[in-house]
Specification:
6 helices; alpha/beta; 39% helix; single chain
Length: 175
């Protein structure tokens, strides 16, 4: 229920700072289409979606027709394994225990699930080669839509601690 406001605030802040790249998560495409509509062509929209098999083995999270429609409208889409879980989540499920990447994810969740997602998708987009290294506005949320927006300097997975969160534009009060 906070998606419209989070996107609005993210776009306003990006414009004020001269940032052209907006990164957001989307699986159904609903959040991506909403951001595209609200951005009115003024920003490069980058969508990060879950890897195939995330919900159901060998099934893509974002349907092919949605992918095609978004890319036809100029949206860059990244499909990849979650940077802050990936294989470690599988090892944890089988063997239990604490693992560094999962600890990083849980630490980011102190600011809310959306903050963790915004950081994670920025790393995924950097690794996919769709970022230039300039500051971006990254959005994240919990399950459906977005509720958090950050200004950040992205980094690749292998240089994760070079990523810098410059500003929290918005996040839910009650997380």
């Amino acid at each position: 229920h906070n998606s419209d406001k989070a996107i609005e605030l993210a776009l306003q802040r990006a414009k004020a700072l001269g940032i052209t790249g907006i990164i957001l998560p989307s699986t159904s495409g609903a959040t991506a289409f909403k951001a595209l509509e609200m951005a009115k062509g003024a920003f490069k929209i980058i969508v990060v979606t879950s890897h195939a098999g995330f919900d159901e083995p060998f099934v893509k999270a974002m349907p092919d027709d949605v992918w095609a429609e978004l890319t036809a409208k100029g949206v860059a889409i990244v499909r990849g394994s979650h940077a802050l879980s990936g294989v470690e989540r599988g090892v944890n499920k089988m063997h239990g225990g604490a693992y560094p990447v999962l600890i990083i994810a849980d630490t980011l969740r102190l600011l809310g699930q959306g903050a963790k997602v915004a950081v994670e998708i920025s790393v995924m987009a950097a690794d996919a080669g769709v970022l230039s290294g300039a500051k971006v506005v990254a959005l994240g949320g919990t399950h459906n839509g977005v509720d958090t927006a950050l200004v950040l300097l992205p980094a690749h997975m292998n240089n994760f601690f070079d990523l810098k969160i410059n500003e929290i534009i918005c996040k839910p009060f009650d997380i």
